[in-house]
Amino acid sequence: MATTPPPPASILGTLGDFTSRENWDNFFALRGTGDSFEWYAEWPDLQAPLLELLGAAAVAGAAPEVLVPACGSSALSERLYDAGFRRVTSVDFSRVVIADMLRRHARARPEMRWRVMDITDMQFADRSFDVVLDKGGLDALMEPGAGTKLGTKYLNEAKRVLKSGGKFVCLTLAESHVLALLLSEFRFGWDMSIQAIASESSKKSTFQTFMVVMVKGKMSVVQTVKSSLDQFAEYCNMKQANAVIRAIGNENIIRESYSSSVDVLLSLRDLQLGAIGDLKVIVPGRRRQFLLGEQETSLYCYKAVLLDAKKQTETFVYHYGVFIVPKARAQEWLFASEEGQWLVVESAKAARLIMVFLDSRHANIDMEIIKKDLSPLVKDLEPGNPEEEAPIPFMMAGDGVKQRDILQEATSEITGPMVVEDVVYENDDGGQGSLPEKMFRRLIFGRSSGLVQSEALLIRDPPSDEKDKKNRSASATSKKRRNQRKVNCSMGYSSYRHSCLKGNSSIGSKDSLRIDHSFLGSSYHSSIISGLSLVASTLCAASASGEKVSTIVIGLGAGCFPMFLRGCLPFVDIEVVELDPLVAELAKKYFGFSMDEQLKVHLGDGIKFIEDSVAANHSVPNGRASNAIKILIIDVDSSDLSSGLSCPPENFVKDPFLLTAKEFLSEGGLFIINLVSRSSSVREMVISRLKAVFEHLYSLQLEEDINEVLFASPSERYIEISNLDTAVTKLKDLLKFPVDIESDIKKLRRLQ
C-alpha cells in the first residue's frame, strides 16, 4: 500500500495540541481512511537497522513480542508483520485510527493486534514485551512547552511492560528536550546506544531521524552511551547530529562520575530510576545522601539521607519512617556523622529511615507545611508494595535547647526586636572550668526569623593554680560541642522543650561567669580567620616590624568576633562600625565587649564611614595616608530580604560601594564579605559585580550552611596563593588562639 504525501496545512491545523485525543480523532477523520502516513523515516530507510535489531531480539528462535505505541496510521506495524514478525501489538488512543487500521488489516494480517489505549497508562501486565518500538510517540508528547510530565509517565510505562533484557527502541528527531529526558530516564540500569537513520536516496533529510536503543539491564549499573553518529556523516544532517554528539558527551561525563568512586549527590528522581538499586527492597546497611524536592514537585528542596537498618529483625516499630532534623541541630555528631545516623536508625526502630535536614531555607515555616510538602516526596521511597495508604510516621529532633534563661528583650527602631538569652543545649557532657554543662549566651534578631545572630561561650574562671593548664580553642570547643552529643537518640524525638534556668539549678550562680572570648560561635567567622592565609606573609612582616594592620569591621553584633580578633592577632588595629546604638549597648552589657586603643567602635553608617575614610586619604599629601595593608570586613545582616540577600544589605554589593572599597584598600589589602543568599541568581549577580571591580576573588563555601565568605583584592600585591600550605603555617604561628585553618582552606577556591 502506497504512502500518501503529507496532509495539507488545513488538516495539520486541526492538531494544535499533539497530546489531545480529540484533536487526533479529528485529524484522522479529516484525512480519511485507507492509506498510511509517516511523519518521518520511511520504511526503506528503517528496514535494515530494524530487522537486524528485531532478529537479535528473538527468544529461543521465536519471534519477539513487539509493542508499537502511538502507532497512528503508520505502515510500520504492517511492514514488520510482512517481514515475519507476527507478534506485533499496536496501540493508539485515537479510536478513529484504530478502527481504520482494523478494517485495513483484519483479513490480510489476522494475527496483528490493535488496541485503543493511552500510552501513559497502558493496560498490559508487567514484563509483557521483548521490544517496545516507538516512532514519534515520545516526540508528540514532548512538544515544546508541554513539559516532561506526560513523557515521563509514558517512559515509566514502557519500562514496566518490557521484559528483563528487552529493548526500548525510540525513533526520534532527538530535539534537545526529548534527548535530555531519554538520557536522564535511562541512566541507571540500561545499556544505551544511538545511531542516525541514513536516507536510501543518499540525500540528507531536512529532519534527521535517530534510532535510540535502550536495553533493560541490572538496576543501579551505569554505562556510558554508545554512539555511531560519526559513521553516518555522508548521509546524516550533521547540524542535528553534532548537537546530539555534544549532549551524549556531557551525559557520559555525568555517567562516568556516577560509576566512579565519587560520592555524587543524587536526586530523588535518580533514586526512583534505580541509582541505588530497587527501592522496594530493603538492603541492610544501605545508606545514601540525596536531594528531595524540585521546583515543579514541591515547595522546598531538602537534603536527606536514606538508611536501611543494618540488621533486619522482627522487632521494628516502624517499617518506614521520616526523621526531621532542624537547622539548629544539623551539625551535631548524632545527626551529621554516619555513625551517629546509624544510632538514630537503631533507636527509632525503623527498617528504613529517611533523615531530612532543614536549613535556612525552611526558617519560620510551620512544621505542618513542611510535613505536607514532604509527604508525597517520601511516599515513593517506601519499601515493599503497601496496599493501603497508611500515613507515614514523622519523627523530629527538638531545637537542642534543654534550658533557657531570657536575660533581656529589647526593641530598637533600627534593628527591631532582639533577645539576649542563656541556653544549655541537650546532651552536653560538661563545660569549661567547673561548669557541669556548657552554657551559651545568644543574641537573637527577631527580623531574621529568630536567627541566632551571635553566640558566646560562658565560662567560670578556674582556681589560679589551674589557669596555666587551660588551652581553649574556638574550633576545638565548637567541634567538641557538636561531636560529644553521642547519647541515645530518643532525645531527638522530643518537640521543642522550654524551661528557664533557676538560681538554684545545677549551673550554680551566674555571677562568677564570663564570656570566653577565645571561642568563635559562628563557623563563618572561623572561615574569615582562615582566609587571612591569603595575606599571611604580609601579616607576618607587620607583626615582626611592629606595624599595625588596619582592620575595619562593618557590623558589631554581640562583639564576639572583634573581641576574638583583638586577642588572636594583637598587632591588628580594629575599628568597628555599628549602625544601632542599642546593639552596642547589649554587646557591652551582656557579652563582655570592651574598647581600648586597639579596638574602637564608631556608631553610624558603614558605607558613609568608608567614603569618609577615602575622602580623608585624598586630603593627605600624595593622595594616600599609608601604604600599609588594610582589611575591610562586611559582617552585617539585611533588614530588607526582598532583594534576596540576607547578608549583607544590597547597597554593600552595588558598584558605588565596591568601587569605594577598592579605593579604600589602595593598591592591595583584602575585602571580605559574609554572603548569605537563598537565590542562586542573586549570588551570581554579586559575584559578577565583584569580579568587575576586583582583580582577585576567592570563595570559601561553608558546607553546613548557606553562608559563603568572599575574599577580594584589587591587586596581587599582598596575595599569596602559590603556596597555601606555607601560608597556613605562617598564619597559625601568628594566631594566639588555635583555629582549624586546614579544614577551611581546603574549601577555598578562586572565582575566575
Structure in words:
- It is a single chain.
- By secondary structure, the protein is an alpha/beta fold.
- The chain has 23 helices and 28 strands.
- The strands form 4 sheets. Strands 20, 21, 22, 23, 24, 25, 26, 27 and 28 form a 9-stranded mixed β-sheet that branches.
- The radius of gyration is 33 Å and the shape is elongated.
- It starts with 8 loop residues before the first helix and ends with a strand.
- The model is unreliable at 1-5, 8-12, 431-435 and 464-508 (pLDDT under 50).
Question: What is the global morphology?
Answer: elongated
Biggest sheet, open or closed, and with what strands and sense? 9 strands, mixed
The number of E-state strands comes to 28
Low-pLDDT segments: 1-5, 8-12, 431-435, 464-508
Distance between the termini: 63 Å
Round the Cα radius of gyration to an integer and report it: 33 Å
- How would you name the oligomeric state of the polypeptide chains in this document? single chain
Overall pLDDT confidence:
83
| Percentage of residues in DSSP E strands | 15-25%
Helix count, DSSP H or I runs of 4 or more residues? 23
The structural class is alpha/beta
Helix content: 25-40%
Write a brief structural summary.
This is Methyltransferase type 11 domain-containing protein. 31% of the residues lie in helices and 23% in strands. It contains 23 helices and 28 strands.
